[in-house]
């Protein structure tokens, strides 16, 4: 038996022919096959073929264009988003500033309204207090005038009684008669002055004859009536009575007039000390003023 029999050969078997075919697309979409073959043995060996599919150039261009367009669109969208975010942030910041400013303005207006309301309430309170004080003062003045009128009435009645009893008795001497006459006149003038001063503060009303509102001649007539002397109602009629006297020789109770004696438009009562009492006008009412404040045109003496 041979030692070499059935001993397998250590030589590598012949490799069969191989063939690699590449199929690729060409422009225009036409397929082309590229075959690469290599023979390592007889031509009868069975070929081995491997095929690789590759996209066409036209498809590659389309895909590339789509990718570029998609990338550009994504970049544009991102830039747009960033711009919108920036605009939104700016709008929010502006809105916050405007809201802060509006709140500050609203607070300022509210504070101003509170201050105005407090001021109005304080003024209303002060006005109420002034009205109450004025009402109390008017009530007190009215009570004082009423008391003065009562006293004047009693004094006038007493003076008239004394004058009547004196005339019914025999006079002792001319000196005593003169003294009594002077005393009666003085008492009458005092009554007139006291009545006029008791009306100071009363209102002026055209045609007013009392008891709390007067015009100029109404006050003069009432003052003389309190002393038992009747006077006409109109100013020029009152200034036409009695005897004309100089302004440098006035006595309490004399009637002052403005205008001509027979055509006066205003009258008042001289109360002594260079002053007079008169119902001046609707703004001042009944006042006591110095002759210098509104110098009269002349004076008459009734007593």
Question: How would you summarize this macromolecular structure in one to three sentences?
Answer:
The chain has 303 residues and is of the alpha+beta class.
Strand-helix topology:
Blueprint: E1 18-25, E2 31-38, E3 48-53, H1 57-168, H2 174-198, E4 203-204, E5 213-214, H3 216-226, H4 235-239, E6 243-245, E7 255-260, E8 263-272, E9 275-281, E10 285-290, E11 298-301
Parallel strand pairs: 1-3, 4-5
Antiparallel strand pairs: 1-2, 6-11, 7-8, 7-11, 8-9, 9-10
Helix pairs in contact: 1-2, 2-3
Structural class: alpha+beta
- Report the β-strand fraction as a percent range: 15-25%
Q: How can the largest sheet be summarized?
A: 6 strands, antiparallel
Computed Rg: 66 Å
CATH-assigned homologous superfamily of the domain at 184-301: endopeptidase domain like (from Nostoc punctiforme)
Return the CATH topology of the domain at 184-301: endopeptidase fold (from Nostoc punctiforme)
Q: H/E order of the elements?
A: EEEHHEEHHEEEEEE
**Helix fraction bin:** 40-55%
Q: What is the CATH architecture term of the domain at 184-301?
A: Alpha-Beta Complex
pLDDT < 50 runs, ≥5 residues: 16-45, 162-185
Major sheet strand order: 6-11-7-8-9-10
Report the total helices.
Answer: 4
Mean pLDDT: 76
Shape field: rod-shaped
CATH level 1 class label of the domain at 184-301: Alpha Beta
Tell me how many strands there are: 11
Q: Terminal Cα separation, in Å?
A: 201 Å
């Amino acid at each position: 038996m041979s030692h070499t029999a059935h001993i397998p050969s250590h030589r590598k078997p012949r490799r069969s022919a191989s063939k690699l075919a590449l199929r690729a697309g060409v422009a225009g979409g036409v397929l082309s096959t590229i075959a690469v073959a290599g023979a390592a043995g007889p031509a009868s060996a069975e070929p081995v073929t491997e095929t690789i599919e590759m996209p066409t150039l036209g498809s590659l261009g389309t895909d590339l264009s789509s990718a570029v367009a998609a990338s550009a669109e994504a970049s544009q969208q991102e830039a747009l988003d960033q711009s919108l975010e920036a605009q939104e942030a700016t709008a929010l910041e502006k809105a916050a500033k405007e809201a802060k400013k509006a709140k500050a303005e609203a607070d300022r207006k509210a504070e101003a309204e509170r201050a105005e309301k407090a001021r109005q309430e304080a003024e209303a309170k002060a006005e109420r207090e002034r009205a109450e004080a004025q009402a109390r003062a008017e009530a007190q003045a009215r009570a004082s005038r009423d008391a003065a009128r009562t006293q004047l009435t009693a004094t006038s009645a007493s003076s008239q009684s004394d004058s009547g009893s004196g005339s019914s008795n025999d006079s002792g001497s001319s000196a005593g008669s003169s003294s009594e006459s002077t005393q009666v006149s003085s008492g009458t003038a005092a009554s007139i002055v006291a009545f006029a001063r008791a009306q100071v503060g009363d209102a002026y009303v055209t045609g007013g004859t009392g008891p709390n509102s007067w015009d100029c001649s109404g006050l003069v007539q009432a003052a003389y009536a309190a002393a038992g002397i009747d006077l006409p109602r109109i100013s020029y009629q009152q200034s036409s009575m009695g005897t004309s006297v100089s302004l440098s020789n006035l006595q309490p109770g004399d009637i002052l007039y403005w205008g001509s004696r027979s055509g006066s438009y205003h009258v008042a009562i001289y109360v002594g000390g260079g002053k007079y009492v008169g119902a001046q006008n609707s703004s001042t009412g009944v006042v006591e003023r110095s002759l210098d404040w509104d110098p009269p045109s002349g004076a008459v003496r009734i007593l």
